Every structure is written in structure tokens, then in C-alpha cells.
């Protein structure tokens, strides 16, 4: 019986260790990037105002923003493999595929409802997606962004199906806060975040379509320079 309890305790410790968010890749004491939960109506949280959006539509926008931010992190944060940003992003796409598809469809209906034609609605949705991706372009705060995205991405992997939108409500403020430069808190004033990537191409509308990077048009997605 004792050996069984030991095995169970060991397994629980292993799971807890794997699930624990990354926290010490860059700082002795990390900046506090936490913030209150959001609804999506707050200025800047989902990039642009969505007049007349329902609660479901705002949650869909939050989910799409979080997915996009973690997508950018999966590509730009591979300089620190222990963050697992790429692995976690691929896992969450599988785990939350149904909810993410629904979020996209809800957003598509919102933009179609607020446009004169279906084509104009699709154009507005594409522009929204481009703005969302561009909003996660960061230079001097990339370390903060990658660490926050690593933590949130790992949470997303362990979030039950159907609850990705709820996770976005709880964590989008932190991901947005991470885009502002903040340095070592244990030894203030002695740390500088060096720009790690060329992010200018990320702002080109022609390089995006429906939230996807058009490699044939703009080349490989810009990584660390």
C-alpha cells in the first residue's frame, strides 16, 4: 500500500511540475503583468471597438485575439525552447478546435451584420484579423511577451474544451500588459530588453488573409533577427 501511495504521489508531482507555468527563463523576479478579467469591450483589448456586439461576439473576439497572440508567440519565441510556445500552440489548436471555429463563425456573422454586403463583411473581418496580428508585434518588450505567452499557452493546454473563451477573459489583460516594456524587478535599472526580431513585415495587410500568413506572397514568417 505504501508503494502504491508513493507511485500516486510521484505521478501527481510529475503532472504538477509539467503543468506549472514558466517563470524564471529571463528574470530573477519577473514583472507583475497581471490584471483583472475583461469582457472585450475595454479599449484596446480586442484591438478595435465592436459597436453593438453581443456578449457572445465579444467573447469570440477575445478568443480570436488570444489565439492570434499565442500564434505570434509560437513563431517568435522559439529562441527560448523551454517556454514551449510552439508545442502548446499546436496542442491548443487541437484541444479547442471546435470552439475556435465557432468563434470565427460568430465574428464573421458580426461583421456581415454590420456591413452592406457579405463581401464587405468578409473584408472587414479580414482587416480585423490583420489588426489583431499586428497588435502583437513587439520589440523592446518581447521577453515579457514571450514569458506571458508561455504561461498562458500552457494554461490553454489544460483548459477544458469549451472554456477557451473564458480563459481569454481571464488572461487577455495580462497578454496585453506584456507588450509594454518592463525589466528585472529584483535589481531595478540594470536590465535592458534587446530587440529580438524584425516585426515590420507583420503590419503589412497584404501578408494576411483570414488570420493566416501568406508565405507565397511575403516569404517566410519573420522570426528572430
Structural summary, described in words:
With 225 residues, this protein is an all-alpha fold. Helices cover 53% and strands 2% of the residues. It has eight helices and two strands. Helix 2 (55-76) crosses helix 4 (97-113).
Low-confidence runs of at least 5 consecutive residues: 1-23, 191-200
Shape: globular
- The helix/strand class is mainly alpha
Provide the β-strand percentage band: under 5%
Main beta sheet: strand number and arrangement? 2 strands, antiparallel
Give the count of helical stretches.
8
* End-to-end C-alpha gap: 56 Å
Q: Quick one: how many beta strands?
A: 2
Looking across the biggest beta sheet, what order are the strands in? 1-2
Helix share, percent: 40-55%
Order of helices and strands: HHHHHHHEEH
Q: Give Rg in angstroms.
A: 19 Å
Rounded average pLDDT: 79
Structure at a glance:
This protein is 53% helix and 2% strand. The protein has helices spanning 2-19, 55-76, 85-95, 97-113, 118-134, 142-157, 164-177, 215-218, and strands spanning 208-209, 212-213.
Based on the model shown, name its key terms.
single chain, 225 residues, mainly alpha, two-stranded antiparallel sheet, 8 helices, 2 strands, globular, disordered N terminus
Helix-strand blueprint:
Elements lengths: L1 H18 L35 H22 L8 H11 L1 H17 L4 H17 L7 H16 L6 H14 L30 E2 L2 E2 L1 H4 L7
Antiparallel strand pairs: 1-2
Helix pairs in contact: 2-3, 2-4, 2-6, 2-7, 3-6, 4-5, 6-7
